[in-house]
Specification:
six-stranded mixed sheet; about 240 residues; eight-stranded mixed sheet
């Protein structure tokens, strides 16, 4: 995994900072950015589909400061998921593509799912070993992309997770929970015109599940998840 790191020498506004083991998390943001992707299969081979050149994956930018007078060595990155998966398909359209994207942190394709659900059993943690030095009294910026190893092109993946950076001494610094969704999300699983009561109940259940996830304390919302939250609240208030 190649984690982008950039030094920052200037003072930064600290949002929800955490101090531990000589490190502090100064700032966290999440957003969608295009990542390379390719089609690896499709459910309906009779429907021609144009392979996507890219997918809009979840990126998290974390700014960390070393408070010590000596270098701090980061040896491991851990992402612990409190929610992960996709809403139920209420109105099957046929022919969705199975896509693999080049994320740096991948949720394994065989990660167990909850019974009768598109969401994974949680919590679970994805770990990656790395070696990086943060110089004394300096800021470093980590840019991390993450998502499922395989996914359906038109079904949004969403997740709630914490990211921890571990020093070679075993001490860790961890973000607050982050809620993020793929950039090309659609409100179709929540608000498309239903053909019958069963489909409508499915849409309401999808919406309620997502809004329930957002009750996690101290949650940091990605730009796209903030937009989806506003749309789901508007749909709920109009019903």
């Amino acid at each position: 995994m190649a984690v982008f790191v950039a030094s920052e020498a200037n003072d930064l506004t600290r949002e929800g900072e955490v101090k531990k083991a000589g490190l502090e998390i100064a700032k966290v943001s999440a957003f969608a950015v295009k990542v390379p992707a390719e089609v690896i299969g499709e459910e309906d081979a009779g429907i021609p589909q144009r392979p996507p050149a890219s997918a809009r994956g979840v990126h998290v930018e974390i700014t960390v400061r070393n408070l010590e007078e000596s270098p701090s060595f980061i040896s491991r990155l851990m992402v612990t998921f409190q929610a992960s998966g996709h809403p139920d398909v209420c109105s099957p359209a046929g022919g969705p593509l199975s896509v693999t994207a080049e994320y740096q942190v991948k949720i394994p394709w065989d990660q167990p799912l909850q019974k009768g659900s598109g969401y994974h059993k949680v919590p679970f943690t994805v770990t990656h070993e790395l070696t990086h030095e943060i110089r004394p009294n300096m800021y470093e910026k980590f840019l991390i992309s993450l998502g499922p190893e395989y996914e359906y092109e038109e079904m949004p993946w969403l997740g709630i997770f914490k990211i921890a950076l571990e020093r070679d001494s075993g001490e860790k610094v961890e973000t607050n929970p982050i809620a993020a969704i793929e950039g090309d999300y659609t409100t179709r699983p929540f608000s498309e015109s239903a053909n019958d009561d069963k489909e409508r109940r499915c849409q309401v259940r999808n919406s309620n599940e997502v809004l329930s996830m957002l009750k996690v304390p101290d949650l940091i919302l990605s730009r796209e998840f903030r937009d989806l939250k506003a749309e789901l609240e508007a749909i709920r208030s109009s019903n």
